[in-house]
Write a structure and sequence with these properties.
Number of strands of chain A: 3
Shape of chain A: elongated
Largest interface: A-B, 54 and 54 residues
Structural class of chain A: mainly alpha
Largest sheet of chain A: 3 strands, antiparallel
Oligomer: homodimer
Number of helices of chain A: 6
Distance between the termini of chain A: 47 Å
DNA sequence: ATAACATATGAACAGTTGTTCATACGTTTG
DNA sequence: CAAACGTATGAACAACTGTTCATATGTTAT
């Protein structure tokens, strides 16, 4: 006929499978948070910042110099990393030092590297 | 004076540290690939697709129905997931089934979940 | 061969994102 | 206090991304 069905006619999913899928699927909020976390890792500048912080804490201008980018651009991205709780900071006079918040960062990046190296 | 220095005047990074950072920093191509991988995880639709595939392989229309989205939208995203080698597919007549490529997917998502759960 | 179905894909459009620029904030020094 | 420095931030703009829509491709059945 002329009218398309919204989905395929013969469904391959069974009731038990649908239930099982819905059980394992995280709630809306967790899913959103998870996606936001991966979005943070999905940017070259932010990944580079995390990599330079692997070695030691650094101030904003040092990171900017190491990555050959403007202070403003780095500061904006450090804000994103901080909101995602991937880095923390401490002030020392005029200078603000940033450092990795915990070891999850290394683990997640490591797993990603494992994948792209087959 | 009136002219701003490009970077802070007193650098906190030392030569040894800079060398060490540059040593650990992956090459341009690996960094790019890593970022592209995380970008793939940074979308609600794609994460949802991966979650439903945790249970079993599914055809495109089943995924579309489970996520209440159009066949086209799902197909576009499956293409992205396939290019990232996170899913694979097999054809069976008119139907194409998609399934997880390997266990890195579970590991990476698991690590992400660990982080957001503090 | 034709029709119907399942999937794939190109174009377009809206929403999002990262950088730059200008400027504000917070701290130290004279 | 004012000036200088290091950092933070809002606005604007270009580049990118995900969905929709229309349509094409590939397979099966009549």
């Amino acid at each position: 006929m002329e009218v398309r069905a919204e989905y395929c006619e013969e469904h391959h999913v069974h009731k038990e499978l649908v239930d099982s899928v819905k059980l394992d699927m995280p709630d809306e909020e967790s899913l959103y948070d998870l996606v936001e976390l991966f979005k943070v890792f999905g940017d070259t500048t932010r990944i580079r910042i995390l990599y330079v912080l692997f070695e030691s804490e650094l101030c904003v201008c040092d990171i900017a110099e190491l990555l050959s980018m403007s202070q403003s651009a780095i500061s904006h991205q450090l804000r994103v990393l901080k909101q995602a709780k991937l880095v923390r900071s401490r002030r020392e006079g005029k200078t603000v030092f940033y450092f990795l918040a915990d070891d999850h960062v290394r683990t997640i990046i490591g797993q990603g590297m494992d994948h792209i190296n087959e």
